[in-house]
Please model this.
Amino acid sequence: MPELPEVETSRRGIEPYILKQTVTDVIIRQKKLRWTIPSTLKSQLTSQLIRQVDRRGKYILLRTDAGTVIIHLGMSGSLRILDKSVAAEKHDHIDICFSNNKVLRLRDPRRFGSVLWTKADPLKHKLIAKLGPEPLSDEFSADYLFSSSRNRKVAIKTFLMNSHVVVGVGNIYANESLFSAGINPKRLANKISLPRYEKLVEDIKVILQRSIEQGGTTLRDFTQQDGKPGYFQQTLAVYGRASEPCIQCGKPVKQITQAQRSTFYCTHCQN
Ligand SMILES: [Zn+2]
Model:
């Protein structure tokens, strides 16, 4: 599943090709994604200039004077920039065509992604309005996490993965940052001290930033029909390493399930 670093890498990958370009056509081959692609998208978006390519959480926002396209990659979505002449393949559900003869093409085999349109402020859209702060912003601080956790009797890992608390700390990054900060993922959020939250917030930022930088090495994949744009090899300390030796102490990494998601941690290094 694309997590925040992959979505940010996708945003950076497509931006140079579509920013300040005019939309010449919208081709919808499959409108039934997680939500149906609005029937007005083609008429509203055609002839518009892309003013900004933004991201909020895992939503990519293509802003025009008439409104904003809101794209979510779901479980398996990916975006590519191709020449108009490249034939669409199976699972290529929508093309947004531009005056520079490029197309922005969404491929999504599982169809949990979405392409929506709003004429209003996209940050007030019902899917976006209630999202917590961006993890790389100053708003996401130890003080914020500490104060918002005081009455939350929930495991810290589940707390971190709640998008109303902070956006974009998905399962991989919650596991990795709790390992890095030495915090047991089962510890209750309201029982964690401010100094420990300081270490955790710093580690979340470092790990996400490092992943975004790693994603930068795949930017050229956005212009190739094959390949997997936005998906990249990550260096993982604990995620997916059940029973393998902990990189710090050598004891086997433990795997449990929390809120239907796999948790990996070291019982010796995380408490
Ligand atoms: Zn260990």
Observations:
- The pocket of zinc ion is lined by residues 246, 248-249, 251, 266, 268-269 (CB under 6 Å).
